[in-house]
Amino acid sequence: MSRTPPLALDRYLAASDRAIADHTAMDELLDVFAPEAVVQIDDTPIRGAEAIREFYRGYVNAHVASQHFWNTTVLTDGRQRAEWVCAARTAGGAVITVAGVEHATIGPDDRIVELRNEFTRPPA
């Protein structure tokens, strides 16, 4: 029986939790993205490897624990869609929940070229 490798969005969401738990996993998180990828978590697009690294460095440093749960599907146009929820503890000690839907365009090397998030429950 052959196993299907995880989708890019599955790797991304799992790696974001691992990077918070162990900062040495940051490279694993960043490797999910193509070098010239665009990430848009809120209204501001982040372009290119260095800007994405800085964004996720801030994200990881702002949290001490997180756990995502999600369902990923591949749309008819080839994009991947993940509906997700997360519970997290911030570096300041607050416990938060957040949820959203992410769409990713995947390049030929199975890395995310464009990631767009829409919060269905903003961080609270």
Give the secondary structure arrangement, pairings included.
Elements: H1 8-21, H2 26-30, E1 33-40, E2 46-47, H3 49-61, E3 63-74, E4 80-90, E5 95-106, E6 112-121
Parallel strand pairs: 1-6
Antiparallel strand pairs: 1-2, 3-4, 4-5, 5-6
Overview of this protein structure:
The chain is α+β, with helices and mostly antiparallel strands. It has a single domain (8-121), classed as Roll (Nuclear Transport Factor 2, Chain: A). The chain has helices spanning 8-21, 26-30, 49-61, and strands at residues 33-40, 46-47, 63-74, 80-90, 95-106, 112-121. A six-stranded mixed β-sheet has the order 2-1-6-5-4-3, covered by helices on one side. It is globular. The termini are far apart. The model has no long low-confidence stretch (mean pLDDT 95). Residues 19-114 form the SnoaL-like domain. InterPro entries: NTF2-like_dom_sf, SnoaL-like. This is Nuclear transport factor 2 family protein. It comes from Pseudonocardia nematodicida.
Give descriptors for this structure.
124 residues, alpha+beta, Nuclear Transport Factor 2, Chain: A, 3 helices, 6 strands, SnoaL-like, NTF2-like_dom_sf, Nuclear transport factor 2 family protein
